[in-house]
Amino acid sequence: MESGAGKHWTEEEVKALLSVWAEKNIRKQLYGTLRNKGIFIYIAKRLQALGVHRDWKQCRAKYKNLKYEYRTVKYAHNSGNSSKTMKFFHDLDAILQHEPAPQLTEEDANSRCLATLIPNAAPETTEGK
């Protein structure tokens, strides 16, 4: 079976990827880290068990492309343009609607700014008070 980087994903391959991606523990790991090579190695092994022979780089690229396309269509829908669509939109919506949007509180922003301004700043402790 051809597994070159330029080979298009079949509908069955994408469905298999989505089924693995939809698992709660996979979603949580993908959301919780930027260095996700290990997660995609695991996903590629799971896909191989399902008969899909893709390496981790192909899985990560497809994941990123699907996510980007989904967000583009979702933004268009939220802007009133419901004519823009994509295959697997509803599957991706079910997966990504559970992904928490990063929210930065004012306290978080202030502490991050202080941490970058004061290189050796340690958090305050209540010892000795």
Describe the structure.
This protein is mainly alpha-helical and 129 residues long. The chain has one domain. Helix content is 59%, strand content 0%. The protein is built from 6 helices and no strands. Helix 3 (37-49) packs across helix 4 (56-78) and helix 4 (56-78) packs across helix 5 (89-96). The radius of gyration is 20 Å and the shape is globular. Mean pLDDT is 79; it is low at 108-127. Pfam families: Myb_DNA-bind_4.
Mean pLDDT score, rounded? 79
H/E series: HHHHHH
Largest β sheet strand count, sense and barrel closure: none
Q: What is Rg?
A: 20 Å
Write down how many β-strands occur, each being a DSSP E stretch of 2 or more residues. Answer: 0
Summarize the structure.
Helix content is 59%, strand content 0%. The chain is mainly α and 129 residues long.
Show the helix and strand layout.
Blueprint: H1 11-21, H2 24-32, H3 37-49, H4 56-78, H5 89-96, H6 106-117
Helix pairs in contact: 3-4, 4-5
Task: State the main characteristics.
single chain; 129 residues; mainly alpha; 59% helix; disordered C terminus; Myb_DNA-bind_4
